[in-house]
Each structure stands twice: as C-alpha cells, then as structure tokens.
Amino acid sequence: MLILRKIAEVRQWVQEKKKQGLRVGLVPTMGYLHEGHLSLVRAARQENDLVVMSIFVNPLQFGPREDFATYPRDLARDADLAERAGVDMIFAPEGEEMYPYYPQDTTVQVARLAEGLCGVSRPGHFTGVATVVTKLFMIVLPERAYFGQKDYQQFLVIKRMAADLNMPIEVRMVPIKREADGLAMSSRNTYLSAEERRQAVCLVAALRLCKERFEQGENNSERLIKAMTARINREPAAQIDYIKICDADTLEEMSRIDRPVVVALAVYIGKTRLIDNMLLNTDVMKNV
Known about the structure:
By secondary structure, this protein is α/β, with parallel strands linked by helices.
C-alpha cells in the first residue's frame, strides 16, 4: 500500500492505473479510523478495482470553537488498519498542499440541504465539506465515492453537489456501524469519559423508541419527538442540540410520517457533540 502526500503524485498514480482500465473507489476520511470507516473500504473493495482513502483533517469544516486542534490523529495506526482492510493507496496531504492559499477564495456551497439540522449550529460546516470533497474528487477522479449514513446530511449534500455540478461520480451511502451496545461508531467517541460513554447510548435508545412507536402506528412527528426527548433527558450528561424528522431526500421537516423520512438527532454528552439517525418508512431500516 502506498502513502502519497502530494497532489501531483496522486494524479500520476491514478492516471497510470486508469490507463490500465482499472476503476477507482474513493473513501474520504479525516482519519482515526474505526470499523465504520473500514466498512466503507469493504464496500469500495467490492465495486472497484482499486481503493483510495484520503486522510485529511479539513480545517474548513471546523468552526472557531470546535475541535480542529485536538481532533485525534494517528497516521501510522490508520495506515495499518487501512492496508488490512484492502486500501491500495492513502492520500494524506498536509494542510499547505490542499490549501496553498488559506483561506482560499473559492468554496462550494449546497444551499438548501446544508441549512437545517447540523447546519444551524455549525454554520459554514457543509461549505467546508463540499469544498474539500470537490477538491478530492478533482484530484482522484474516482468512479465512485463512499460515505457513511451516520453523517446523513453530509451524504445528501455531497450527492446533490455531484449531481448539480455534473460530476461523473457515483456517491454511495453505507449503513451505520455500531458498537455492541448500539452507539454509532465515531472518532469523537474517544472524547467520552467512562460515565459519559455509558450515557451516550441514549441516542440510539431514543431512535429505537421512535422506530417502535412508529411500527405500533404512531406517525405524528411531534409526539415521536416528545418521546425521544424524554428518553434522552433521563441522562444527566445529555443536552439536546436538535431532534428532527425530515423528508429523506429534501430534509424538509415533516409533521407526520407519510413518506420515507430520516429521524436525525444531535446531542451533547458532556462537551462532546454526537450525531445519529435512522431511516423510517423505507426499506433501509436495518441499521439500528
């Protein structure tokens, strides 16, 4: 497995492989890999001849009071995990390589899909995501790119961006990977104390409660959100950022579930902000 640091090196490597008729799948990450990331690699491995993983902690998607400086980084550990999962090449650039003129003048904004949910408390976040992913798409030129369902809003933003800008790239979503107790896997879980980690299960507990009530016939969003809120508020370390039930394609808030929806939530456990979601009224309901 190669580890390349320079854009020119990546482009040359990809061009040589494509001349051989090989198809490339891209897995964009910020590193500190866990099983969720590796599930993206396995999906890419099944559908492509080569798998490229980017590892880059993107400063554009962090707000001024967010955890850019302390975000966990361990390239040696990540490289070992990536190689064993089947990655052929890691692109791990320095910040100056990706943004020689920082902050750069050109950014990519996906307006409506980025406005709600995490976009409210993290203004500019999805512009940072869309910008760096556009750059990665232009550098690697993959046939397919893979994103996790845990970041569902991010997936929709990238999918819409690729469609709107006529990028010849299939944007694929891979289901959420969870710990044994149901907590969605996340690099930020490492920030939790033992007691916070125990309480963090309230996110998936609330989603499971919502699913149970829906399957029993409840489709009123207000009542479902009230039940989820009560479950999360049982944990003293939990502070809700948002709980929303939205159209699965447009992220429009729904007063009742009469079409495919995403039930999305963001909760602070202590100082750590965690997100999770579940798709309801669709055939993709196996992740929780």
